[in-house]
Design a protein that fits this description.
Strand content of chain A: 15-25%
Largest sheet of chain A: 9 strands, mixed
Largest sheet of chain B: 2 strands, antiparallel
Helix content of chain B: 25-40%
Strand order of the largest sheet of chain B: 2-3
Number of helices of chain B: 6
Shape of chain A: globular
Number of strands of chain A: 17
Distance between the termini of chain A: 54 Å
Order of helices and strands of chain B: HHHHEHEEH
Structural class of chain B: mainly alpha
Number of strands of chain B: 3
Largest interface: A-B, 60 and 40 residues
Order of helices and strands of chain A: HEEHEEEEEEEEEHEEHEEEEHHHHHHHHH
Helix content of chain A: 25-40%
Radius of gyration of chain A: 27 Å
Oligomer: heterodimer
Radius of gyration of chain B: 23 Å
Strand order of the largest sheet of chain A: 3-7-8-11-1-12-13-14-15
Structural class of chain A: alpha+beta
């Protein structure tokens, strides 16, 4: 193991140089909160032995800082549009470009999104929160400071519950909780494109000023899998609320991991911060690699420095990112242009204020949609499926609705339907990287097929064959094609009933018709 | 804010006129209601911290943070005087008083509707930049570290 790591580390050397030029020193991440660990990590032990010598075990400690881009039409403090891909510097107002004489004007929708998220994560919503300036110099931050909420953020002291499987067979799930320290509103910075060839950076301010929710999680996690599961659950919650689309690939959800290791009974070790994590899968890899690296380093008598490291997805390792910056002094000061943000609830609602200027926490709480955990429970209760199945269903966008549609249109019991959905349909979709919306077989068709199975007009094997054939026969969804197949199946059904033939004959008939297309 | 506005006094090298201490007003600070018209500050320096020389490390740190250049003894002296002036705040007894961090604290924070009302002024914005490449602003590859000039360093160390 040590030899492998050493090899990988050597291979990372050249990468470090290139990466340093590529992701040029970028200050800006806030201090990481260090508190008591409320939840001892002991999923599958959680502790990792120090290798062959079998010395005292190590306890890894993982905390996350997550930035979620708020789903809104316009930016946090200005009226320019929020959009992913647009011509450079076309979605930039004078305020975003930090031209003199401009002032921030807070977007109501962003505040509501933060309150919704805070309520969904069981936070205490601060009825009075304040805005501050965090100063640092970087080309994509034209003002030289970022408006954030460092002293009194909008929401504090929440929790996020997530599930993960103990073993690989998805048969035993355990629920864990991570505490949320705070949620704050802040501005996003612009984007820098590094042009190494001409030794310059190109700056696009389209993203500058977009509203972000920064979620700070306490270090209650102990491995990559836990971190990944927590982020996945957060992603589902944000998408259900609509407060953020949380697509990591588009930069709407950015995760930085803080990793350290220590012996049981001793104080926390020095932590490193890992950035440049672009997917949930890479998050798990990056965290696990960093834990192993730290254990190896300390096991060999080395020390861990409080540094920032970048994750290289191609090599699967972390490399140092910052060297001589040292500790950043952000010179926090109150934002002089913004009064405190006051939120109300049913009791404190002012009588004679313009309702457009008032945000009522209770009103928002009443309108929160069912969170994923609630949806999962409802599915288990209503259809009698297993919690693991419910978990897998909700993990795919659109699959719960597909499942419910099939159940509505078939006589087959939901407990049996779920098998078809998760084993046959989902595995095919996964193999071919299709979303549920792109499924070649609609819920109507599948229900029809399952009905035939229920009526014992075809065998289970035959049904599987038909499904497989129809899935592969139509790689692209086409409404007309689907309708055609539906008609065809009805025709075949008619034939079968008239024929009174054997099962195999019916299957042959169906297959023949499908292959004709 | 007060230190900045009195910059011209500092540059002129004169001592700025004493202003009455800004007594906190309003409902929150009932324990410290002024008895009568605002009084002149007591002249004694008893509560003001003794004047300290600003160390070289602090000066370098400040230069790095704020990108200012203290250049010569006059600049450092101006800084010392500014600190001395601000230290007068210590003469006010603020025990048990909640800090006020904005004069806007009793104003209503205006909430804007989530409509797109600005943007699409690429050409105007790029006019401000000396150098652009295909509608991008151009910047150096990363933060350029501050170069410590030999002469400056010796000066700062010499002034200790």
């Amino acid at each position: 193991m040590a030899a492998v790591l050493a090899m990988v580390a050597r291979g990372c050397g050249g990468v470090w140089r290139r990466l340093r030029q590529r992701c040029a020193v970028r200050p800006g991440s806030g201090p990481f909160p260090r508190g008591e660990r409320a939840v001892a990590c002991n999923a599958r032990g959680g502790m990792m032995s120090a290798g062959k010598s079998g010395l005292t075990p190590w306890i890894p400690v993982v905390g996350l800082e997550i930035h979620a881009q708020i789903s809104s039409n316009s930016k946090l403090f200005s009226g320019s549009q929020v959009q992913f891909a647009a011509p450079p510097n076309s979605l930039v107002s004078f305020f975003d470009a930090s031209l003199p004489g401009t002032l921030p004007v807070l977007n109501r929708r962003c505040v509501e999104a933060a309150v919704m998220t805070g309520l969904a994560l069981n936070c205490h919503i601060n009825k009075k929160s304040l805005f501050d300036r965090k100063h640092y110099f970087y080309a994509d931050l034209p003002a030289g400071y970022q408006i954030t909420q460092q002293r009194v953020p909008i929401a504090v002291n929440g929790s996020l519950s997530y599930s993960l499987c103990i073993d690989n067979k998805m048969s035993q799930m355990v629920t864990k909780t991570v505490r949320i320290k705070q949620i704050q509103l802040e501005q996003d910075s612009g984007k820098s494109l590094h042009d190494d060839a001409r030794s310059q950076t190109l700056v696009d301010l389209n993203r500058a000023g977009v509203g972000l929710m920064e979620l700070v999680m306490e270090p209650d996690m102990c491995c990559g899998e836990e971190a990944a599961a927590a982020v996945r659950e957060l992603q589902l919650i944000l998408q259900t609320l609509g407060s953020s689309q949380a697509v990591m690939a588009e930069g709407q959800l950015r995760v930085d991991a803080n990793v350290s290791v220590h012996h049981p009974g001793e104080p926390y070790g020095v932590r490193t911060e890992v950035k440049n994590i672009n997917s949930i899968r890479f998050l798990a890899k990056a965290v696990d690699y960093e834990i192993q690296r730290q254990i190896e380093e300390l096991g060999n008598g080395g020390t861990i420095s409080n540094e920032t490291r970048a994750f290289d997805s191609k090599l699967g390792c972390t490399v140092p990112m910052r060297d001589k910056e040292g500790k950043q002094d952000y010179r926090f000061m109150p934002e002089p242009n913004l009064p405190p943000l006051i939120l109300y609830d049913a009791k404190s609602l002012p009588a004679n204020m313009n309702h457009q200027q008032v945000i009522n926490i209770d009103w928002i709480r009443e309108r929160l949609p069912d969170l994923p955990s609630v949806k999962r429970e409802k599915l288990v209760e209503q259809y009698g499926i297993l919690p693991e199945h419910s978990f897998t269903l909700l993990n795919e966008d659109g699959l719960p609705e597909f499942f419910e549609n099939v159940v509505k249109q078939t006589q087959m019991k939901p407990k049996k339907v779920i098998g078809w959905i998760l084993n046959d349909l989902l595995s095919y979709l996964k193999q071919h990287s299709l979303t549920v919306k792109e499924s070649p077989v609609s819920s109507f068709l599948l229900a029809d097929l399952l009905n035939l199975l229920e009526k014992k007009e075809i065998s289970s094997t035959a049904a599987k064959q038909v499904l497989a054939t129809s899935l592969s026969a139509f790689p692209h969804t086409c409404k007309q094609a689907r309708d055609l197949i539906a008609l065809l199946l009805c025709y075949v059904e008619m034939l079968v009933t008239k024929w009174d033939g054997t099962e195999d004959a019916a299957v042959t008939e169906k297959n023949w018709c499908l292959q004709g297309f | 804010m007060r230190v900045l506005s009195l910059g011209r006094w500092l540059r002129a090298g004169r001592v700025p006129p004493r202003e009455p201490a800004s007594r906190p007003s309003g409902h929150r600070h009932s324990g410290h209601r002024p008895q009568g018209p605002p009084q002149e500050l007591p002249q004694g320096p008893s509560q003001v911290p003794p004047q300290q020389k600003v160390s070289v490390e602090v000066l370098e740190h400040l230069e790095h943070l704020a990108l200012v250049d203290f250049r010569d003894s006059e600049g450092v002296e101006r800084l010392q005087k500014a600190i001395q002036f601000a230290d007068q705040l210590h003469e006010v007894n603020t025990d048990g008083v909640e800090p006020m961090d904005s004069v806007l604290e009793d104003r209503c924070l205006y909430l804007r509707e989530d409509d797109v009302t600005e943007g699409n002024c690429t050409k105007e914005l790029l006019e401000n930049a000396r150098e652009t490449v295909e509608e991008y602003f151009v910047a150096p590859p990363g933060n350029i570290p501050l170069v410590k000039l030999e002469g400056q360093k010796t000066f700062l160390q010499g002034s200790k």
